[in-house]
Amino acid sequence: MPDDVLVVGAGPAGSVAALVLARAGVKVTLLDRSGFPRDKLCGDSINPGAMALLRAHGLATAIDQVGVPIRGMLVTGPGHTEVNGRYAAGICGRSIRRRDLDALLLDAAIHAGARFEPNVRVSAAATTGTGSASAVNGVVVGAESGSHVERRARVVIAADGRRSTLAFGLGLAKHPIQPRRWALGAYFEGVTGLAERGEMHIGKGRYIGVAPLPGGLANACVVVPELAARSFMHAPDVALEAAIVADARLRGRFERARRVTDVQVLGPLAVDVASAGVPGLLLAGDAAGFIDPMTGDGLRIAIKGAELAAEAALGYLQGRIGQPHLWLQGKRDTELAGKLRTNRLLRSLVARPLALSAAAVGARIVPAAVERIIMYAGDVNAQVDRQ
Predict the structure, then answer these.
(1) 103: Cβ contacts below 8 Å, ≥ 6 apart
(2) pTM for this one?
(3) How confident is the model over 245-255, as pLDDT tens digits?
(4) How far is CA 230 from CA 91, 201, 235, 267, 353, in A?
């Protein structure tokens, strides 16, 4: 008997969507190409806005217990620009290794009644009808025999990441011509100067994020243009450490640090989508569009998008929403458009050296402008320290 909903991808968006649906009594199955826990390149920071969403689902307590508090954001730029935005008392985010966050959210979805099937590779959407009458009615997965079988469902939620097999396969997603950037990151121990805050160090054409993690670790991730990425593909460890050494603010802090994980590489980063889905299929998480993770707001956008996709699916199953993909698009336009515009503006700024230099001058003169961006990204009101 087919599922009510198949969710492809068991990351934060997929797990939250499955959790919401399972709690509503929906028969939902999560499929993922990997087993869990598994490592994934990520900034590892959950901002206050994302924590508020997780708290509403009863998921924040476990994260609070293991995560490092994040009470603000340090942003630096060219010409000694430095703004330290501090959240208001009692408001904070958390920093937690992505493998641990994913495992916590997946466990919660399973506990709510969702079924999880790991190591399942989805190769395409299954469809019925032709032309304008076509609709998704399941997915095609690889069988152990090497053949392919179809798994049926009334609704499919594609939460299979920024390289979504389903979104790209249906022509909903594409990598934009510009910007085309790549990320590489790893965990370090022995980094000095860490505090209960995230860090974003912006340079011409690139930026470096640093976040404290449980156990005295630090996450360091650099994002660079595709042209530069080509030169480090053969030696990403050398490239990451060279980027850190080249930053005067970070060089001394990493002088005695030791990298304790392999360097992971991801790119091209940006993904644009034409719509939030098609009949029978809804997009969630990075599959619904991915912007450079500059503001640290990616998880909040993914979780909110997952809630909306689950609401659309539930409304369709209950007969309240006739075209859930159109309903979802409208909700995303209303609730996420402002955040997405801000992220696109900032990623464009980093790609233009003259604009970045002008912004750095402006930030030194009017630091409150950067402070407002920090607070807007974190969905909080704040007190700030200026340096």
Answers:
(1) 36, 37
(2) 0.89
(3) 999 999 999 99
(4) 41, 22, 10, 11, 20
